[in-house]
Amino acid sequence: SSTMLLSEAEVQSARGAWEKIYVDAEDNGTAVLVRMFTEHPDTKSYFTHFKGMDSVEEMKQSDQVRGHGKKVFSAINDMVQHLDNSEAFLGIVTPLGKKHATQLKIDPKNFRIICDIILQLMEEKFGGDCKASFEKVTNEICTHLNNIYKEEGW
Q1: Rounded to 5°, angle at Cα 59 from 55 and 65
Q2: Per-residue confidence at 1, pLDDT binned at 50, 70, 90?
Q3: Are 62 and 53 in contact (CB under 8 A)?
Q4: What is the pLDDT of residue 101?
Q5: Residue 115, in any domain of the structure
Q6: In principle, which of 45, 125, 138, 149 could form an S-S bond with 154, CB 3.0–4.6 Å?
Q7: How many domains does the structure of the chain reveal?
Q8: Which of the residue ranges 20-29, 46-55, 121-130, 143-152 would you say has the lowest mean pLDDT?
Q9: pLDDT higher than threshold 70 for residue 18
Q10: pTM of the shown model
Q11: Where is the Globin domain (predicted)?
Q12: Host domain of residue 53
């Protein structure tokens, strides 16, 4: 059997927490990106089509922002489904990390930013317990992504 990243209990509570926010994947994914672009405007520079957008309303309604928000949430959802199988988990995280490191050249600090915003949103919407049970997952994701970046020479 494959090694687990979290205990069975942690996996269950993390999945429960994630399900709450994933129900509205597109809206919540969009909210996370809009907050990132607003609080960390330099992150917009990676997205050529978001660069000129300054108003929150404009961002919220942009098909590209919404589409990418949903994409981010789908990727995390795939990881959450495989928390009990580190091989499968890495099978999702590794190509994603490589693509962001080599093709997109995204600074890895942005993964931590986005994870922290997801945790904030969880806390605001569903309380501190929800955030606490997902925190370990975001740490796993960021740790693995950072390792992939190191392997790629960052």
Answers
A1: 160
A2: very low
A3: yes
A4: 96
A5: yes
A6: 149
A7: 1
A8: 46-55
A9: yes
A10: 0.94
A11: 5-150
A12: 8-152
